[in-house]
Amino acid sequence: MLYDLNLHMGYVYDVPASGARHVIRLLPLSLPDRQRLVAGSLSVSPNADEKTTFVDFFGQQATSVLVRAPHERLDIRMQARVQVEAQPLTADFSPELTQLKEQLAALWSVEPDSPHHFAGVSPRLPEEPLIAAYAQEILAPGQTVREIASALCARIHSDFTYDGEATTVDTTAREAFRLKRGVCQDFAHIMIVALRSLGIPAGYVSGFLRTLPPPGKERLEGADAMHAWVRAWCGETMGYIELDPTNNMPAGSDHIVVGYGRDYSDVAPVIGVLKGYGNQKVIQAVDVVPVK
Known about the structure:
Blueprint: E1 2-24, E2 35-45, E3 50-55, E4 61-67, E5 71-84, H1 97-106, H2 129-136, H3 145-159, E6 161-162, H4 173-179, E7 181-182, H5 184-197, E8 202-209, E9 227-233, H6 235-238, E10 240-244, E11 249-250, E12 255-261, H7 264-267, E13 270-275, E14 280-290
Parallel strand pairs: 6-7
Antiparallel strand pairs: 1-4, 1-5, 1-13, 1-14, 2-5, 3-4, 8-9, 8-12, 9-10, 10-11
């Protein structure tokens, strides 16, 4: 599938801000046999006084911008064309949990893609006993790691309600678990904590969903903004799989990857600091349209 992406993120301040420095992570990745960034551009208004681009530890392109002059709003726009390949269905070659732990212990790599980075707690995801107990409830004798991850994905989709008003970007996994409501970020965080509690390395995937569904299919939840799903390590033979608990489905040709991380803090689309006070209004609009 070939897609055209258009994104606008805006911040409107009650009082003009100044001395603002932000790091922006919005451009999709190019991934072998998965997706290719054909072309992409990122612009900021007002124009940045300084602008540098770098690749972070997990391989995501990031842009650092500095705006010195006072400004009442900041507008970030991203445009891209992306080719996404459909992922073939494969047999389940993942091990059982005890074997997964042995395979992880035998793996010495600490490269960015190593599952060791996704096996323990991370900045926004400490251990949560209630979520760990929830994960234990889905275990059954003889299950493979992929079966466990898929069962957990399905259960979160069934037990939690998508509600864009229930949580904020700062809501913890524990709070969202208690509410049983939230958005894709919350469901991804809960699933990651649950998988890690079982000894399954899991990480956060930031990206986009196609906005317009194919004829005869329902629109996916989360398609009106940036989306999030989960990456789980299923052993040395199978590697990583990606599951979307918001929609209870494997990530496929409707999912466009922007970045991988341990949790939201590694892949936040915009982070930074500025001089100012008062409140701000956030605007976000996303279009992911198939190219005919």
